[in-house]
Design brief:
InterPro entries: DUF4179 (IPR025436), DUF5643 (IPR040680). Pfam families: DUF4179, DUF5643. The protein is mostly beta strands. It has two domains: about 220 residues, Sandwich (Immunoglobulin-like); about 120 residues, Conserved domain protein (Immunoglobulin-like), CATH 2.60.40.1640. The protein has three helices and 18 strands. Strands 10, 11, 12, 13, 14, 15, 16, 17 and 18 form a nine-stranded antiparallel β-sheet that branches. A five-stranded antiparallel β-sheet has the order 1-2-3-7-6. The longest helix has 16 residues. The N terminus is likely disordered.
Length: about 350
Amino acid sequence: MKNDIYSMLNEIKINIDDYKREDFNDIEKKEIKANLKKSILKKKFPKRNAIAAVAIVALTIGIFGNNIGVSALSKVGYLINNDIGSFLGIEKNLDDYKTVLNKSITDNGITVQLNEVILDGNEMTVSYNVTSDKKLDEYESWDGFNQIYVNGKALNTGASGSAKNIDDYTTQSVITYNLENCDFTGDLNIKLESSSVWLNDNEQKGNWTFEFKTSGDQLRIDTKEIILNNKFTLENGQEYTLEKYTDNSLGQKIYASISNFQKKSSYAVMLKGYDDLGNKVEFYPSYSNKKNALFKIENIHGNLNENAKILKLTPYAAKYPEESGKMDNEYKKAGEEFTIDLSQLK
């Protein structure tokens, strides 16, 4: 049976060879931007279309940088919708964990407003708005590229996120960057540096650089986990080992390692099942590379019930098309059902 969530991957091209690239040339930037735009806009900005993550898995340059027009500043007030939790459908109060910045930069008639930032393990989630005087058509939105620095060190980043137009001139995005091998303890100096922004295939260059200090210590302290050891193998021989389940106010995650990586034959993988209260539960792939993968709970069925004590999940996989185009392959069971005892969280 086809899965509606992953139909959002239609027409998205993934180039595994580019996982560790330090930058992209102009042609590649246009192609990546166009593919992300399709994943976001064809659904007319659903409440939570974070499945765009798979389209830009393990990009070295994240998707964020933006600009804002001077005359458009009146449209960029701090809206209640700028709250990361509200945008992602998270019901818990995240005030203790986020850094509220509310900073804006205008260059070349485009304004970017950096709203909030939350650090969770080796992930950084950013909320920002992009505004200009140009009225957006129904299927238009702003996209950008940026480099992230932590304590002066440039980081390779993968990215996943959601976007929606909040008025005729403004695109709001919440992007989560996977910052592997970064220690997010203590006070951190963060810089988000962007030099280009896109609307359709039109690039505008400028300088939209944000610098700020933040810390991920509190959310790290409040994160509970369960050690896992569940394995499954795809039809191409690539093996996943589910190693850890974590839970905090941002949601639930399952960390996995990958062995026998296959470059030419790739699959979309998800974990789905039920809790002991009968609620449907799905984990979608937030990012994946040659060695690791991260699955996050999909809020399309609502947040994980806080009274749930047991999760029963089964891995499913569908093969990506060899060429860019619609993903017609069905999801098939890729392993045996396994159980996570949530009472073991500590």
